[in-house]
Prior knowledge:
With 209 residues, the chain is mainly alpha-helical. The protein has a domain at 64-201: Tetracycline Repressor, domain 2. The protein is built from 10 helices and no strands.
Amino acid sequence: MRPSSRPIPVARRPRVAEERLLDGATAVFAEGGFEGATMDAIAARAGTTKPTLYARFGSKEELFAAAVEREYELRKTRLFEAYGTGDDAPFRERLRTWITAYFDLAAERPEGFALISEGERYAASAPAIERGASAIIDRIAELVTRTSGRTGRRGGRLVASMISGMLRSCATEALRDDSIDLADAAALCESLLYSALRGVDPDLIDAVG
Length: 209
């Protein structure tokens, strides 16, 4: 028996089934937006039925929020792996590693990036976005304060928020415009961030608090 044809253990089946539902939802929400998406279309894309979607998620709003939350979990997993490597490398090299990981993820999951952009417009997904974005910003803030040698927690988090916002905006815009090469966008983002961070007065990080 080939590995791909082995029966899925019973304990894993609910998780696999949920991933399939969320994959279908992500694709449909990314294509048509929250308003344009229908549960019928999502069910068809996921290879299931509309009653199954309602039984599992309750409503379109809850399904949307679950898809956004899953996307942020995937994003955190990938980015945290990158953020935890190369601590001894020069700052520019570490910055390149972080940005490359972000743009690689954008290339692999354009639907996920479109979903999160759509999610920022709706209250249903606000808690998931707040939790996901906050976790990423907190991690970047640790890197900022460690790299700068400063202890200003609020200042470091403010800088991290700027970095996160710039990465998100740059990647999202590059995905929307087919004429922009993602690798070129990543290189531009790296150059701009490196220049900006080198120009930051470290005392200002502590001054914010």
